[in-house]
């Protein structure tokens, strides 16, 4: 039960604001989706720093907080210059904190976090690849293109983490 609950918490964190990466994206949609995913990564990373027990999980979470915070700042700067709005994190954080209180097993948390990082990064990569190839705004397209290598590295790291913790998303 704790594993199912922790998976639900992480899915909420990571999936908030996400639309299909294959839907037609305009600048507003990309900024909203990318910023929501970025905020979710930072919040999930903070949660893993607090609730995770394995050193490799905590180290990965620290990298997620740092890297996604930097990307979020860059995206916000671009969005502000174009009068586009980024996602608001307040509601997401409140929902996640309420569910976090019910987590019971730290080991299942580590496994759930690793699994969800694989899934989240796969979805984010799809979103960014679509923007990089089909985006209409040169600056957003460049942001997506420049961010993709780091996202792909995160995915490979997440797959190794999931494999190390008995996850089913490592393949």
Q: Averaging pLDDT over every residue, what do you get? A: 80
* Helix content, binned percent: over 70%
Strand content: under 5%
Structural class: mainly alpha
Low-confidence spans: pLDDT under 50, at least 5 residues?
A: 16-24, 101-106
Could you describe the largest sheet, including whether it forms a barrel? none
CATH topology: Ferritin
- Quaternary assembly: single chain
Number of strands: 0
Q: How many angstroms separate the termini?
A: 24 Å
What is the 3D shape? globular
List the helices and strands and how they pair.
Blueprint: H1 2-15, H2 27-51, H3 55-81, H4 90-100, H5 106-134, H6 138-164
Helix pairs in contact: 1-2, 1-4, 1-5, 2-3, 2-5, 3-6, 5-6
Provide an overview of this structure.
This protein has 171 residues and is an all-alpha fold. It has one domain: Ferritin (Up-down Bundle). Helices cover 78% and strands 0% of the residues. The longest helix is centred in the last third of the chain and has 29 residues, at 106-134.
């Amino acid at each position: 039960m704790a594993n199912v609950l922790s998976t639900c918490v992480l899915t909420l964190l990571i999936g908030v604001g996400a639309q299909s990466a294959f839907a037609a994206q305009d600048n507003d949609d990309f900024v909203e989706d990318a910023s929501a995913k970025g905020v979710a990564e930072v919040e999930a990373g903070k949660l893993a720093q607090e609730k995770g027990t394995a050193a490799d999980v905590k180290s990965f979470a620290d990298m997620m907080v740092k890297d996604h915070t930097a990307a979020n700042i860059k995206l916000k700067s671009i969005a502000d210059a174009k009068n586009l709005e980024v996602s608001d994190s307040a509601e997401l954080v409140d929902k996640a904190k309420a569910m976090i209180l019910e987590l019971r097993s730290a080991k299942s948390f580590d496994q759930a976090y690793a699994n969800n990082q694989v899934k989240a990064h796969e979805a984010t990569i799809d979103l960014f690849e679509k923007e990089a190839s089909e985006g209409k705004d040169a600056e957003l397209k460049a942001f997506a293109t420049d961010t993709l290598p780091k996202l792909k590295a995160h995915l490979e790291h997440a797959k190794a983490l999931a494999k190390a913790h008995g996850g089913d998303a490592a393949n």
